[in-house]
Amino acid sequence: MKLKEAAKTSERFTGGHRLCSGCVAGPVTNLIMRASKNPAVVGAATGCLEVSSSIYPYTAWKDSFIHNAFENSAATVSGVEAAYRSLKKQGKMEEDFDFIAFGGDGGTYDIGFQSLSGAMERGHDMVYVCYDNGAYMNTGIQRSSATPKGANTTTSPAGKVIAGKQQYRKELTDIMAAHNIPYVAQISPFKPQELMKAAQKAFETKGPAFLNVLATCPRGWRSRAEKGIELTKVAADTCVWPMFEIENGEWKLLYKPRKKKPVEEWLRQQGRFKHLFKRGNEHIIEDIQEHTDKRWNYILERCGERQ
Amino acid sequence: MVKPGDGYKDIPIGGLILDAGNAKEYKTGGWRTKKPILDKEKCINCHLCWAFCPDISILSEDGVVSDQIDYDHCKGCGICANECPVNAIEMVKE
Amino acid sequence: MSSKVALTGNEALAQAMRQINPDVVAAYPITPQTAMVQTFSQFVADGEVDTEYVTVESEHSAMSATVGASAAGSRAMTATAANGLALMWEILYIASGTRLPIVMPVVNRALSGPINIHCDHSDAMGARDSGWIQLYAENAQEAYDNAIQAIRISEHKDVLLPTMVNLDGFITSHAVESLEILADEDVKEFVGEYQPENYLLNADNPIAIGPLDLQDFYFEHKMQQAVAMGDAKQVILDIAKEYKELTAREYGFFESYKLDDAEVAIVALNSTAGTAKAAVNNLREAGVKAGLLKIRVYRPFPAEEIADALKDIKAVAVLDRAESFSTNGGPVFADIRSVLYDIKANVEVVDYIYGLGGRDIKVEEIESIFNDLQEIIKTGQVENRITHFGVRQ
Ligand SMILES: Cc1ncc(C[n+]2csc(CCOP(=O)(O)OP(=O)(O)O)c2C)c(N)n1
Ligand code: SF4
Ligand code: SF4
Question: What's this model's pTM, rounded to 2 decimal places?
């Protein structure tokens, strides 16, 4: 769909939410919601998107919305979807609905991981969206298992002897693919049409679908507010955030940079990696580059692309 | 709609909000320090600013980007200006 | 037409659930509740109910999915015990705070650790402040009857609070009892259709549930909840009356057993009340004015009614099947002693913490507690305010 056509879809997520200025969770949510063709029930895990979009007595959601807790967005929406199936089966309702659960990386990779895995395994007809900003932002930038190696967070601070987060990020998208659900995609908002297309596929999929979307947090990344979208492109061009989908087991690459850029370009624009550019930390950047290359080659191979 | 100062007998139970989308009534324009100005002359109607605006403040009518930005909600992040491929949006001091 | 059947407590509750025919059940197995959800799963597999059974991966998700299903606008149930209830804890408060009329059998079992699968009330007592209505049952018949009434209580527009239907692990859940089961049509008619006012699956009136509720309104929402808990009292009595018309079985906040002229009395919950009745009978035969107050409705706490029922007793022993580690007695003791203080009753109240981890309590042992009470009356002295009954030195 051309963007100017997309602009004719109805608004489902409104202004007046209280995400920070430049928070990329905003456009991610707006565009994904616009790809839904039915009325929806939206669930969200505790986190920035949830607290900002539903501060009593306001809601930025034009659809029905439920926040239950931090770790159970998937289980909650699975209950809503079960109710829908039950009521439909009994002829107590007719309308079609879409079911969407949102979670930040903390609510998805970490504390909500079991609930997500269970809901996907059970095969509920729902779309789970992780807006991955790489830390627990709502509580003040603590590390998660999605935080990239080397990042300075408030629980993996860069100190005199430890240079930020010590571990590589967990590849949750692959883990979701291993659930053998019909649709999984790892995408980025700098390609809005691709994002909407993936969301549309996810909604049209019968059964569970999972979208992992990179969503810049200018506050936590220590980056400039206006660079939020640009940074997601840099992430794709440096291959730290490959874009790919797995449809019925088939892996497909969604974006190949014309010229792969060094990870330094990604790291340099974010204050959370500043300490890596100090003398003596060169090996960390080299290590991140090596890890990124390995991962990228793996993705290329899975997607049947030439390296 | 629930009003500030309403008592417990006046408001829906359990924290339910019955007016979906009413956040629109909450103005966030006051957060802004810079304001985007869209120049229709330069605009090529690509809609990238529309797609990327975190605050759903770039408006499009019948497939045409409007220069009437929703300043009630625009927080002045500058993403629209940064992403515009033809520099049709300028950020000016409030 | 009702029918007389021989069932375990778990089977009786599974039958109640079949007859209630909830739209959604999301549950996870745990001893001693397992047989209940297994039996119910078979009803689902055999097409005897319309229920969508969500085979969640944990009790946390069981309660979370039940909240989702209830908020969606469907009648939703779950069931659990002990560690399962503990794992649900966070969401118990969300269910009640969101005012969802979920009904949940809880097969009472000791909380770890060390791990123990047998009966005590540490699970439900820990959840007594979670905003759920709590009903207790002496036997399978009462648990069955409570479950059916609970649907009506929870869904009543003046209430809209979730209810735990408690029964003793193994003692009630696994023992076969003869009980009366209502006809399917009668239950169907009694519980009626669930008709929520605001719910998620309503495209014409979308709503938001579970917002961030800060200093300006949270307290008002908690006040509404407190008022609803108070209003539940009348609703519980009204529904019991209606239920009596159907079954001739009578229910109130509690059962007063030979309490009218009693001088010594025991307060107990669940199956121990049955044992206590036998002790009361024996003592009455021996000329002792003994009585029993068996609590059915523990939350909301029927404070004035209990005070009134106990006001003329000279010595009361509360049997607590849970240790609260307050060093000031068990949870039921705290509640009972506080209502008697209010009416300035001239009564001594003592606490017996007993039966933890499923340790049996026998008729003679309860008789010995009555003897202790008589001793208190005789001497005017309370030697032990709080006794850990039957524990070895
Ligand atoms: C059980 C529980 N533990 C901890 C918290 C505190 N908490 C609320 S949001 C949050 C972090 C959210 O992080 P993420 O899911 O990454 O979303 P983000 O805020 O970054 O959008 C935490 C730790 C909580 N609400 N519940
Ligand atoms: S802290 Fe980050 S993720 Fe949270 S609202 Fe602000 S920019 Fe968005
Ligand atoms: S400055 Fe930011 S909030 Fe304002 S219109 Fe542009 S993108 Fe939207």
Answer: 0.98
What is the separation of C-alpha A65 from the centre of its chain, rounded to a whole number of angstroms? 19
Pocket test for ligand 3, best of B57, B71, B83, B94 (most atoms within 8 A of CB): B57
Which regions of A154-288 does DSSP assign to beta strands (E)?
Answer: 183-187, 209-214, 244-247, 250-253
Distance from the Cα of residue C188 to its chain's centroid: 23
* Chain C interface mutation, best of A72, A92, A125, A139, highest count of C Cβ atoms under 10 Å: A72
User: In 3D, which of A181, A61, A64 has the Cα closest to residue A122?
Assistant: A181
CATH value of A3-302 in 1.20.1280.260, 3.40.50.150, 3.40.50.970, 3.30.70.3340? 3.40.50.970
Instruction: Tell whether A19 lies on the interface with C, counting CB pairs under 8 A.
Output: no
Q: What 3-state class would DSSP assign to C80?
A: strand
- How many Cβ pairs within 8 Å bridge chains A and C? 163
Is the CB of B77 inside a 6 Å radius of any atom of ligand 3?
yes
B1 close to C (CB below 8 A):
no
In this structure, the residues whose C-beta lies within 6 A of any atom of ligand 1 are A 45-49, 70-71, 103-107, 133, 136-139, 144
Please give the ipTM for the structure prediction. Answer: 0.98
CATH of B32-93, one of 3.30.1330.10, 3.40.50.1820, 1.10.101.10, 3.30.70.20: 3.30.70.20
A165-210: pLDDT as tens digits: 999 999 999 999 999 999 999 999 999 999 999 999 999 999 999 9
